[in-house]
Write a structure and sequence with these properties.
This protein is an alpha+beta fold. The protein contains 1 helix and 3 strands.
Length: 54
Amino acid sequence: MPSVVFRMLSDLEAESAYAWWAAQGKPEPQRFGLTVTAEGQTAWLDDPAASWPV
């Protein structure tokens, strides 16, 4: 069974994530996507071509 590691977000990480979300127009959850391949996982907002690793 794979091990799972959880960690707490720092205040700076949470503030940064909120600022990014607000700058994007506070998108609804339905606008986000997740792509999983053998090479890795990426998240995206509206367009899979503009993804970031997770």
